[in-house]
């Protein structure tokens, strides 16, 4: 696996420990020079497309929209798309969390993945935007109720990486203005959807969010693969 560099330090992914399958996923421990990153891998044999999913500052295996992450990880297997959920080592530290995502990309590269989507909720929105700016194999980014702090790199995605932003207008944690400001900074292709009366978790519109995110990821990854061919 390739070394992962950051402005302040270097992370080297030294190996991966894959445990026995649980439900639809395999627990994976990425052993790095900066500690262990815990992941849940939903592999698809012979696929070269995958999604990486991350939560917010709450850490753990948190997910918005009533279990959106594990639900779509399973559904996307039918679309030939693998998934990797990442539990941040330090869920309040932006740089550490970006490096965690880059380590996940490195691991999936080793597994044959060439085309990536990154999805992040709240704090995780800034994480996936910055990770995408550093990885040319990321074709699309989806943010859910993102913060605006740390998202300036969105302008670096240019035309190679599309962007979907979802936010509830009743969000009492992060104002929908956060997603609106990110949208203004981003270049095309991009889309912003605001959900009236939905809060930070987007639980009120979970079914709609699930369908929108799935359709977006499938469409963007498939069209990106077609362009490569």
TrEMBL record:
Keywords: Hydrolase
Pfam annotation, one family: Abhydrolase_1
Gene3D superfamilies: alpha/beta hydrolase
Classification via InterPro entries: AB_hydrolase_1, AB_hydrolase_fold
GO molecular function: hydrolase activity
Protein name: Alpha/beta hydrolase
Record bears the keyword Hydrolase: yes
Domain AB hydrolase-1: 100-148
């Amino acid at each position: 696996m390739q070394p992962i560099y950051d402005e302040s330090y270097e992370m080297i992914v030294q190996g991966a420990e894959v445990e026995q399958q649980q439900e639809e996923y395999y627990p994976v421990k990425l052993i790095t020079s900066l500690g262990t990153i815990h992941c849940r891998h939903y592999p698809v044999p012979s696929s070269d497309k995958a999604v990486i999913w991350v939560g917010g500052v709450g850490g753990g295996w948190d997910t918005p929209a009533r279990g959106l992450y594990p639900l779509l990880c399973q559904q996307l297997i039918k679309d030939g798309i693998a998934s990797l959920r990442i539990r941040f080592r330090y869920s309040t530290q932006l740089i550490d969390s970006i490096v965690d995502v880059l380590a996940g990309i490195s691991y999936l590269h080793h597994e044959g993945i060439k085309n990536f989507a990154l999805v992040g909720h709240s704090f995780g929105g800034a994480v996936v935007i910055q990770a995408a700016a550093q990885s040319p194999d990321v074709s699309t980014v989806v943010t859910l109720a993102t913060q605006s702090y740390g998202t300036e790199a969105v302008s670096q995605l240019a035309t190679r990486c599309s962007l979907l932003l979802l936010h509830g207008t009743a969000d009492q944690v992060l104002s929908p203005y956060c997603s609106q400001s990110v949208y203004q900074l981003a270049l095309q292709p991009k889309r912003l959807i605001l959900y009236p009366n939905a809060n930070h978790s987007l639980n009120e519109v979970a079914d709609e969010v699930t369908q929108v995110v799935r359709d977006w990821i499938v469409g963007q990854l498939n069209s990106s693969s077609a362009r490569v061919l």
